[in-house]
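Predict the holo structure. Ligand: guanosine-5'-triphosphate.
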Amino acid sequence: MGIVEKATEYHLGLLKAKLARYRAQLLEPATKSGGAGTGFDVQKSGDARVALIGFPSVGKSTLLSKCTHTVSETAAYEFTTLTAIPGVIDYQGARIQLLDLPGIVEGASQGRGRGRQVVSTAKTADLILIMLDATKSDEQRRLLEIELDAVGIRLNKKKPDVVFKRKTTGGLNTTVKLTKTDERTIRSILASYKLHNCEVMIREDITTDEFIDVLIGTRKYMPCLYVYNKIDAISLEQMDKLAHDEHTIVISCEMGLNLDHLIERMWDELGLVKVYTKKRGAHPDLTDPICLRRGANIEARRVQRYSPVIGNAFPIWARLVRKLDFRGKSSKFSPHAQKVGLSHMVQDEDVVSIFTK
Ligand SMILES: Nc1nc2c(ncn2[C@@H]2O[C@H](COP(=O)(O)OP(=O)(O)OP(=O)(O)O)[C@@H](O)[C@H]2O)c(=O)[nH]1
Ligand SMILES: [K+]
Ligand SMILES: [Mg+2]
């Protein structure tokens, strides 16, 4: 950065920090009183929740009605859906809760329409589907992103690698060269938040905005798929162009086009793995997998399925048989079978037996 750019970035950084603080305060009281800031009261169920966000009449309810056994009213007029409607997608033995939501309009994050409720509910999901009308301009996508950004949702981004520690003294450490912001800006922002006694470790080349995000602390980093519906009404060229964008999928709810692929993509984005359980001496039940987050360990689910062993003093072990073909009659234990602790990280299609010893 040049000197002028640095000075601009510095002042802009402070201004952004101030604005971010005001916004966070504005959102807070509503949440506490249970008013406009809270989402719809729908029980979470299944292995993961996916929320449908979009402008009115893009086809959200049509999708729910096509992919689940739940019927959500659909019509050509706007705001047909007035509350959250949950449905369940059965896929590979997993149950994914799909949440149909009312359409939102520009200014939703400020409370227009049911916008606040909708975006608050979106925060409770494991994956967001931003549904767009392929026949309309791409401006709609940018507008929706602005609304979600305003309530602290960061789409398809990782939490920046910055660590804060409250201390009696202050300190700023950077392990990488900062090219998009600088230490002076960071220090002034910390001072404007009165964070004098705080050790900060920056381990990534972050921007000023990303630093403010970690400082505010309530940002939600969520995976998102952009779903362009109504491709039956556009040209093949237009469709081709949309389909090549990152995190994007094109469908037609009405004609049932590409919906299978959409569900596959949802599954991938959710990062679920299936684990089969097996009683000693018996074959595993391949019809009833347990779904876990990728990177989860065996312990993550033992409470639900193996409650008798909880709280007893014996060490608990699991026998792990990786990707065994149990379908054949003559199948034997694989040589990969191993005894592992509950902290063992499971992989897709692992077979697990749990026992006490
Ligand atoms: N051409 C076309 N029309 C569709 C498609 N999917 C839905 N529609 C139509 O779009 C209109 C709106 O569909 P809805 O499912 O009610 O849309 P919504 O997003 O739930 O709307 P709100 O609840 O009002 O926000 C209906 O007239 C549907 O028939 C599609 O794939 N192609
Ligand atoms: K509608
Ligand atoms: Mg609807």
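The chain is about 30% helix and 25% strand. The first strand starts at residue 48 and ends at 54.
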